[in-house]
Amino acid sequence: MFHVTERLLLRPAWPEDWEAVLEGVADEGVAMNLARAPWPYGPAEAREFVALPQDPCKPHFLVVESASGQVIGSAGLGDRNGEIEVGYWLARPYWGRGYATEAAAGVLRVARMLGHRRALAGHFADNPASGRVLRKLGFIPTGRNAMRYSRARGRAVRSVEYTLDLAEPSAPVMRAA
Question: Locate the N-acetyltransferase domain: which residues (predicted)?
Answer without folding.
Answer: 8-167
